Amino acid sequence: MPQKYSPTAEAADQDHMFRFERRDCDLPFYRGVPVSITLSGWLIVLASVAVSFAALITAQQRFQTGFATFIPALLFVLIPLAALAATAGPRAPRALFKALRRRDFAIILGFFVLNAIATILLGSLITGLFDAAANPASDRAASASAFDRVLFFGWTAIQLLGEEIFTILPFLAFLTFLDRRMPRKTAIVVAALGAAVIFALIHLPTYQWNVAQALIGLVPIRIVLLLPFLITRNILVSAGTHILNDWAIFGLSMLGGAAE
User: Minimal CA–CA distance to 257: which of 217, 249, 70?
Assistant: First the structure.
């Protein structure tokens, strides 16, 4: 068995939390609050995350117009939450969701701006290094009918919440496995990097299997988007940042398509 990180050493480490973290509560699950998840439980949850992504891709090929476009996004959200509830209890998913505080809106706006700056800088780097593939979602938004454009913003909001679930559940699983085997800060960094790499790799089909573009462009962005959850322990804050970011991109694409 791996050497566990000493609890006494952790207690002696007065700054075991990052300065930006919320101090009145910890991240959920990895230390048994509000409930512990066993190794087999985490494996079920991780498997459900993979199944939800497969369901999203499969259903999107079938439901492309009208209110049916909500079906893939809902499957993406509900499958892993149902698995989490089945393995850790019906109230377990609530640990990811908290009431929004006033300062949470400032965090959403602040990280939206930070992410926009990072996106521009990384986009410039990528286009300077190699031919970059465009995200087809932007083209879909630009070419959609007026009615489908309205629905587009609705189902993409749900899908982007699903992307947060897709990232945060593996992050918490990795953190559970790494915790007390290394200092907490190191475990968080490693877990965040692992979850960000997975997030980047599932976007390979989107970017025509350009591995360099996916990793260089999405790993830093995914870590920026994860920070609001690390700060607040509230998936609604990271999802709000993600939704605002992608809606801005889609909105600009629609304006560009209307101008042509």
Answer: 249
Residues 6+ apart with CB under 8 A from 210: 130, 132, 133, 204
Question: What pTM was computed for the model?
Answer: 0.88
Taking CA 228 as the corner, what is the angle to CA 226 and CA 229, rounded to the nearest 5 degrees?
70
Taking only the tens place, the pLDDT of each residue in 139-174 is 666 666 677 788 999 999 999 999 999 999 999 999
pLDDT in tens, 114-138: 999 998 898 888 877 766 666 666 5
Sign of CA dihedral 250, 56, 81, 173: negative
Residue stretches of the chain with pLDDT short of 50: 1-14, 258-260
Q: How far is CA 173 from the centre of its chain?
A: 14
